[in-house]
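New to this. Please check this protein:
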Amino acid sequence: MRKIIEAIRAIPWLQTAISIVVFVLGIFIGPLLEMQVSPIINATTVFILITISLGAIIAIWNHTRQQISTLEQYTKVLAKSVGYSVQMLPYAQAYTELKNKVRDAQTEILVFSKYVFDWENGKPIYDRARLESPQRRAVYAEVQAKLRQMRGKGNFRLVRIVQVPKGHHLREIFPYDNVYKQHCEFLGEISRDQPEFASLRTSDVVFENTFAIIDRTFLYMEFDIRNPDTSEVHSPFALIIDNPDSEIVQDLVKLHQRIEATSQLVTDIDPPE
């Protein structure tokens, strides 16, 4: 039955209907035209004109339908690649979205962090307003609350990978960001005992944006802009994608997995020199 229905749906109904109309017009309208049309334009001529016009309509419809079909295919590809729910939000609102998703996380939180820091000169270049914002603090507090809630309850994991240039150490940023330091200390303690549950890791710099993926359906990605006057880096907005079918989300999950495989586990955030 399903195949029959699909076959019926596949029939070009509009073209069939127009063809039937042309046929019916040919049968019934001929005699009427002989009675109503002046001798200058006889019935045969008018019928030919009608047939040509309807044929042109069919041709135009076929072309239009092909264009619609092509556009639909491109739209589906774009929607599948990016996701049906895409937002660009100011950082404060984006942090709130991220915090709520952390709270509702069921199985996994993956973070790949490009910490904004002048490693060569040993000084922060993040804008202080965002660095000290209550929304940012709330995200880290929610992550820690989530780990306390899920610890020992089975299938849940968190992996935070921080990109650190060669020749440098994660601890270099801690004097300037106490919130981040406390968060890394918290993760480092879990890494020592239960790295399969939650772990803090470092890698070389390979990606220019920080992103977080929750349950492989939600993506949060920051976009940083350097202020040429102050050299501070601002993140005026973040990209939010919330869709389990998004290919971008799945591709970033694979990137995170590849980097995790070669990253270094951090169990002591301030090791001896």
The longest strand covers residues 233-242. DSSP finds eight helices and ten strands in the chain. Helices lie at 2-10, 13-36, 43-82, 91-104, 128-131, 134-150, 178-193, 247-262. Residues 2-82 form one domain.
